[in-house]
Automatic annotation (TrEMBL):
InterPro entries: DIOX_N, IPNS-like_FE2OG_OXY, IPNS-like_sf, Iron_ascorbate_oxido_reductase, Oxoglu/Fe-dep_dioxygenase_dom
Fe2OG dioxygenase domain ranges (all copies): 214-313
Protein name as annotated: (wild Malaysian banana) hypothetical protein
Gene3D superfamilies assigned to the protein according to its UniProt record, in alphabetical order: B-lactam Antibiotic, Isopenicillin N Synthase, Chain
UniProt source species: Musa acuminata subsp. malaccensis
Lineage: Eukaryota, Viridiplantae, Streptophyta, Embryophyta, Tracheophyta
Length: 360
């Protein structure tokens, strides 16, 4: 019989390794959330026949042929408009560096719990960077089947290296290098997305803070094996508050997207990065690009690790609102102005699917 978790959530890794056959009640999702909820390996098999998240090849954007470039812009625009998520391939980050990032992240989570606890965050006091697990922040006290490590990776002059893992010894070097390389991808994607809206290519990057102020926050998600994957979620349904989010994983399935009135389980596409449109970009684009509802499944067979990077504007410097170029008599502004901080406060803990139709 599973013991009930009362107040402080233990690390999910400890629970998973304790030999339980039933998950504590705090991890059991309500009936309304169990549609298409199941073992990620089973769900990805079922999804093989249905709609698939688009795969976009970024190589075309670097072509000297203007027609090829335009075709790439259109492909990204279509995916961002219809899906709000895509697998991007030929993104320009060396695959060896991606492998190194996976390796150092896994090595950190392979450390004994006592060592990881040295980096524990303290959400109650606002210290959100570091090693943590989801705290119950809703009336039902529900928890997610994951532990994580969260910290800023770019711009480098704003990062706090003292809270980064010292073990493995190459974690800092590899993660910094990845941050720099991913910032180039962020720049490129914002250029493509700007052109897709009929704007000049530097527009979105500038509106979000540019090289100096656009923040890139890394969250390494560690989803242990779960004895009842049909009852639990690694991450509950949400849209990202960011402008863009980029996700790498260890080729274990788990991502589900709410598309066309149903949950679609993402396939694992080798050598790709998953890119989500976030709320900030939906607001700037006046709803043309979609911030899509998604969640994370767990499974009985394999630990899943994902590396999510959230690209966020500064909290108070910038007012987020639909861009003037995209507002006209026939297309009024769909979202009232707000700072990113105001958006976080207003939006972060909404739970029902209806709340996610727009990032209001």
């Amino acid at each position: 019989m599973a013991t009930k978790v009362v107040s402080v959530a233990p690390r999910v890794e400890i629970l998973a390794k304790s030999g339980i056959n039933e998950i504590p009640t705090e991890y059991v999702r309500p009936e309304s959330e169990r549609l298409d909820l199941g073992d990620a390996f089973e769900e990805v098999k079922k999804a093989a026949e249905g709609p698939q998240i688009p795969v976009v090849d970024l190589q075309g954007f670097d072509s000297p042929d203007e027609e090829v470039r335009r075709a790439c812009v259109e492909e990204v625009r279509k995916a961002a408009t219809e899906w709000g998520v895509m697998h991007i391939v030929n993104h320009g980050i060396p695959l060896e560096l991606v492998e190194q990032l996976r390796k150092v992240g896994k090595e950190f989570f392979d450390l004994p719990i006592e060592q990881k606890e040295q980096y524990a965050n303290d959400q109650s006091s606002g210290k959100i960077q570091g090693y943590g697990s989801k705290l119950a922040n809703n009336a039902s006290g529900q928890l997610e089947w994951e532990d994580y490590f969260f910290h800023l990776i770019f711009p480098e002059e704003k990062i706090n290296i003292s809270i980064w893992p010292k073990q493995p010894t190459d974690y800092i070097e590899v993660t910094k290098k990845f941050g720099r390389q991913l910032r180039a991808v962020v720049t490129k994607m914002l250029e493509v997305l700007s052109l897709g809206l009929g704007l000049e290519e530097g527009k979105l990057d500038r509106e979000l803070g540019g090289m100096e102020d656009l923040l890139m926050q890394l969250k390494i998600n560690y989803y242990p094996i779960c004895p009842q994957p049909d009852l639990a979620l690694g991450v509950e349904a949400h849209t990202d508050i960011s402008a863009l989010s980029f996700i790498l994983h260890n080729m274990v399935p788990g991502l589900q997207i709410y598309y066309g009135g149903r949950w679609v389980t993402a396939k694992c596409v080798p050598d790709s990065i998953i890119m989500h449109v976030g709320d900030c970009l939906e607001i700037l684009s006046n709803g043309q690009y979609k911030s899509i509802l998604h969640r994370g499944l767990v499974n009985k067979e394999k630990v899943r690790i994902s590396w999510a990077v959230f690209c966020e504007p500064p909290k108070d410097k910038i007012v987020l609102k639909p861009l003037e170029e995209l507002v006209a008599d026939g297309t009024p502004a769909k979202f009232p102005p707000r700072t990113f901080e105001q958006h976080i406060q207003h939006k972060l803990f909404k739970k029902t699917r209806g709340d996610f139709k727009t990032p209001n």
